[in-house]
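BUG: 3D viewer hangs when loading the predicted structure for this chain

Environment: internal workstation, default settings.
Expected: structure renders.
Actual: progress bar stalls at 90%.

Input used:
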Amino acid sequence: MLREDVLRKKSDFDAVYNKGKSTGSKYVVIFYLKNGSGITRTCFLASKKVGNSVTRNRARRLMRESFRQLKSRMPEGYDLIFIARTTIQDRVCSEVKRSMEDALRRAKLLA
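Structure tokens produced before the viewer hung:
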């Protein structure tokens, strides 16, 4: 069974990229769009520019854990795409969390 809180369809990605807004910070870029439902759907991406597969997977894990810690302070009903920047290599979770917090605050998605 698929989880409801994960962004999957190409049409949903296109909507977030084309109609949504974006903001960035030192380690993360965030694209966001209000989706009209009560569920916040997320996606965590790291391109090949970030590094090899081990580095990319670690970057996604860091972003996922940081978001998990911040999720309770956010409103529901958004589609979020988190993209790792190349500067995320060799960072610890607290640094990524602080960077994510700054970007979410700039987007007015964090209380």
